[in-house]
Specification:
The protein has 140 residues and is of the alpha+beta class. The chain has a single domain, classed as HIT-like (HIT family, subunit A, 2-Layer Sandwich), CATH 3.30.428. Helices cover 25% and strands 18% of the residues. The chain contains three helices and five strands; from the N terminus they run H-E-E-E-H-E-E-H. It has a five-stranded antiparallel beta sheet with strand order 1-2-3-5-4. The radius of gyration is 14 Å and the shape is globular. It starts with a helix and ends with a helix. The relative contact order is 0.22.
Length: 140
């Protein structure tokens, strides 16, 4: 879709920190992370909602998410657990109308609250390039 921010990233019209790509999906760091390593897994075909995906596309999205999550856990990014989130429609907190799976690393006592607009403060974020390298190391 022409004005979709995610489609612009897919067309390399906007920058991103890509940690993974295959023929069906890409995985990029969230530009407004809720924790270090917060990654978005995105189907390459523009599709507003998860319910609009074909069964095959939904399966590929989830399997890619599992692969990325395993890489995050193997890396030295602190992640004792994770939230995997797909928001469907703005009423449920979807801010960009292109389906994407959030992988949000979690830790004991991180006191994180989830919801629209709740983001990791810039002073608490690790460098995006460093995080990208840490995750990519376990995806090859």
């Amino acid at each position: 879709m022409e004005n979709c921010i995610i489609c612009k990233i897919l067309r390399n019209e906007l920058p991103s920190h890509k940690v993974y790509e295959d023929e069906h999906n890409i995985a990029i760091l969230d530009i407004f992370p809720r924790s270090n390593g917060h990654t978005l897994v995105i189907p390459k075909r523009h599709c507003p909602n998860f319910s609009d995906l074909t069964n095959k596309e939904a399966t590929q999205l989830v399997l890619t998410g599992k692969k990325v999550l395993n890489a995050i856990h193997k890396s030295d990014i602190l992640s004792q657990g994770a939230n995997l989130i797909i928001n469907e429609n703005p009423v449920a907190g979807q801010e960009i109308l292109h389906v994407h799976l959030h992988i949000v690393p979690r830790n004991t006592n991180d006191s994180m609250k989830l919801g629209p607009g709740l983001r990791l403060k810039e002073k608490d974020r690790d460098d995006f390039e460093l995080i990208t390298k840490k995750i990519k190391k376990y995806l090859t």
